[in-house]
């Protein structure tokens, strides 16, 4: 990171120079660094989700007035801060992304509780199992979907939820998923002791009416 002494006669600098550099200040010291495009901005998965959300946001104007009023009452009852059309877009985007029918009306079921995750090694695979016996009655549980996310890294790291990548939508009734992780790419000397590796998973339950639980999380350190 290069420091600048009042560049261009200015004491404060900010912004980009073309596509190559970014200017800013740190504790009053101006500096310039190379611009790096964040990986998440070019993710096909993120672009797909954003596009679906925008599509459902526009879908709001084609709903019946009775359907829009139902979403307004739903937001008031739940004391949501977002506008009704954004809440509808969020719930319907999640349902369609998970392969469920589009919810024209707000969910009527109870919000499901967190699924209970368990991890263990089976040969060279990570076995992810879950218990969704608590979230909903049998009729809903049989058609519910498990939304599974994954992260791997050094055992000493505790990843932020934004670092997890979407892994799969699975029928919640299966109760188990086998995941074959890629071997970690370590740049350290092969003769030196290799650091411990951690596999972390986040999961939530999505019911057929688009109601969903919060995320639960579990981690596994093989041999740890």
Task: Describe the protein's architecture and organization.
- With 224 residues, the chain is of the alpha+beta class.
- The chain contains four helices and eleven strands.
- The chain has three domains: 2-34, no CATH class; 41-97, no CATH class; 116-184 and 194-220, Immunoglobulins (Immunoglobulin-like, Sandwich), CATH 2.60.40.
- It is 21% helix and 30% strand.
- The strands form three sheets. A four-stranded antiparallel sheet has the order 1-4-3-2, with no helix packed on it.
- A hairpin with a 2-residue loop joins strand 5 (116-122) and strand 6.
- Helix 1 (44-59) packs across helix 3.
- The longest helix has 16 residues, at 44-59.
Summary tags:
Immunoglobulin-like, alpha+beta, single chain, 4-stranded antiparallel beta sheet, 21% helix, 224 residues, flat
Concise account of the structure shown:
With 224 residues, the protein is α+β, with helices and mostly antiparallel strands. It has 4 helices and 11 strands, in the order ββββαααββαβββββ. β3 and β4 form a beta hairpin.
Main structural class? alpha+beta
Shape label: flat
The pLDDT mean sits at 82
State the end-to-end distance: 38 Å
Number of helices: 4
Instruction: Using the 3D structure, state the CATH architecture of the largest domain.
Output: Sandwich
Characterize the main sheet.
4 strands, antiparallel
**Beta-strand percentage range:** 25-35%
User: How do the strands of the widest beta sheet line up side by side?
Assistant: 1-4-3-2
CATH topology of the largest domain: Immunoglobulin-like
Low-confidence stretches: 189-193
């Amino acid at each position: 990171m290069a420091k600048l002494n009042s560049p261009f006669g200015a004491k404060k600098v900010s912004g980009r120079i073309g596509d190559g550099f970014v200017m800013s200040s740190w504790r009053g010291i101006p500096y310039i660094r190379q611009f790096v495009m964040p990986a998440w901005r070019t993710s096909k998965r993120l672009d797909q989700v954003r596009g679906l959300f925008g599509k459902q946001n526009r879908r709001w104007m084609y709903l019946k007035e009775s359907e829009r009023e139902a979403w307004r009452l739903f937001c008031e009852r739940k004391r949501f801060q977002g506008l009704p059309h954004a809440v509808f877009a969020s719930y319907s985007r999640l349902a369609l992304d998970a392969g469920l029918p589009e919810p024209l009306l707000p969910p009527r079921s109870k919000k499901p509780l967190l699924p209970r995750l368990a991890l263990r090694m089976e040969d060279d695979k990570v076995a992810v199992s879950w218990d969704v016996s608590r979230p909903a009655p049998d009729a809903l549980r049989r058609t519910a979907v498990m939304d599974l996310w994954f992260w791997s890294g050094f055992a000493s790291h505790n990843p932020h939820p934004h670092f997890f990548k979407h892994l799969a939508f699975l029928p919640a009734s299966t109760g188990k998923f086998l995941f074959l992780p890629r071997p970690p790419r370590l740049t350290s000397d092969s003769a030196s002791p290799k650091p411990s590796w951690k596999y972390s998973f986040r999961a939530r339950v999505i019911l057929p009416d688009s109601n969903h639980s919060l995320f639960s999380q579990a981690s596994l350190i093989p041999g740890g």
